[in-house]
Amino acid sequence: SFGVIQKNNEESNRRTKVLQKITIELFAGTDIDDSIGRAVELICTQCGGDASWFLPIDFGQDISYAEGSVFIGLHGWLWRDHRLVPTSSANITEVEQMAKNMRIYDFRIRGHRKPLGTIKTSFKFTPNENTLSLLHSIVSLLELTISKHEKIKIATSISTEIELAATVQQSIKSQETFFPKGAEVSYHYQPSRRLGGDWFYVFEDTTRENLFLLMGDVMGNGLTQGLVITAVKSALDMLIASNKGEIDLFSQLRPSILMNLISAVTRRVLTKSELTMSCIAIQYNYGKGELKVCNAGHTFPVIVRPSQTGENEVVQLFRNQQNILGNIFGNEPIVAFNDATYSLKTDDYILLYSDGLSDVKSIKSTVFGRLLLRKLRSLDLEVGAEKLKNEIIEMFEYYTQGVKLEDDVCFLVLHCQNDLQQKQAIKIA
Questions:
Q1: DSSP label at 50?
Q2: How far apart are CA 236 and CA 265, in angstroms?
Q3: How far apart are CA 341 and CA 174, in angstroms?
């Protein structure tokens, strides 16, 4: 009885060591193709198979380059006569003919999304229970190894896509320096995570009579946000580039036209998604002192105006609020967007912001937006757009100290100087 127990323990220890060796071998594979080749070899060397081979569903191929070729995809592998070779129709046919009178075991190998192929192994004699158990263990460890390789590949791919999307967002913020006749613009952008959902866009028309500011907030998170922002930026870039020809497209451009364009882009990109995007577009005409606003579900912009009473006048621009962008209407017809028009005065300030600024709460659970509207009444409006922006940032940071941001914070300050004749640079700080 003691001898049987000792023998079982020895067999268990031997099996554990074999499994450790197999695990190390498989996980040391450089990719899925390499790991499958190693598994084919281990099935024969550790389980005593006469031959083992892998037949992929989709064979890989050689990609030729100037300095040689690189194999991409999965080989067919064959282990026989103590060596591993890629399969060919000739050697597989030969092996299968020889294995007709042998015991053959088939294992279908799967990846995360689809089957990769089949491993077959032949035995001259029917394997015992321990050998079959080890054979199944090798296949199970192979599938774990495949899963590891696929996760690394997905993680690498996602990291690359996030890097690309973050670069696109940075390019949206980093506009060129403009020289409008009567304005100063400064912005602040603080994403809550590396890939945010807020964006803005600033440009001046070719007549140098109008300044356009756009801001959007894609609801949700992840790579889809970057996809939407990339599509919107590309559409706006193409619009501006197309105006460099002989036809002046900007002569009839209005915020509602821009919004209809952005709406068409977002509906196409978000066809089957539940994501939506709020957006606002404004047009400031220097000579007329006029502001046109098209608002699609975004937070209301604010006019801050000096007053003779000693307290600044703060006016929320809420007229003609329209539906948020996205696929919320299903098959209903697309409704055209409209503009609301406001008159401006010299030294008026326009504040555009996302709800990440207004809705953030302090430790006492009160929203910053209420404090901001109240403080704007007493701020010094002779400081200019950049200094006013910095004052708002200081208030925001003091108000939210100790509070983790759950949403992106984005706002722009536009200082109207429509009676100035000299050129003033838009300051992108």
A1: S
A2: 10
A3: 29
Q: If you count them, how many residues does the chain have? A: 429
pLDDT tens-place string over residues 192-235:
765 667 888 888 887 778 889 999 988 765 566 767 777 788 78
Q: Inter-axis angle of helices 2-27 and 129-173, to 10 degrees? A: 30
Strand segments (E) across 61-158: 61-65, 68-72, 77-80, 83-86, 103-110, 115-123
- 147-157 as b/e, with b when 16 or more CB fall inside 10 Å? eebeeeeeeee
Question: pLDDT tens digit string along 270-289?
Answer: 665 667 889 999 999 888 88
**Closest to 325 measured CA to CA, from 270, 278, 257:** 278
Structure tokens at 155: 């993680």
Token output for 331: 């098959």
152-155: long-range pairs with CB below 8 Å, 24+: none
DSSP letters, 340-375, are EEEE--TT-EEEEE-HHHHS-B-TTS-BHHHHHHHH
Q: Which residues pair with 210 in a beta bridge?
A: 285
Is the alpha carbon torsion for 252, 253, 255, 259 positive or negative? positive
